[in-house]
Design a protein that fits this description.
The protein has two helices and four strands. The protein has 70 residues and is α+β, with helices and mostly antiparallel strands.
Length: 70
């Protein structure tokens, strides 16, 4: 099953990945990272993920924080 990993310490919370995920599996965290941003988080577990591995989130991330696993 495809899934993504987001480096929350590099993420600036721009929200591009949230907007472009066709499955709606990414959201912004309510907690802050070390830089004071609300980072994006993957809103699904690896086993029951509806992630298709399309990698739109990774392509849209300006800070290259997202890794897609297929």
């Amino acid at each position: 099953m495809p899934y993504i990993k987001i480096d929350v310490e590099k993420c600036k919370g721009c929200g591009f990945c949230v907007k472009f995920c066709p499955q709606g599996l990414i959201k912004l965290s309510e907690e802050l990272n070390d830089k004071g941003y609300h980072p994006a988080i993957f809103n699904s577990d690896k086993k029951n993920s509806k992630c298709t591995g399309c990698a739109l989130c990774a392509l849209m991330c300006p800070d290259v924080c997202i890794t897609v696993y297929k």
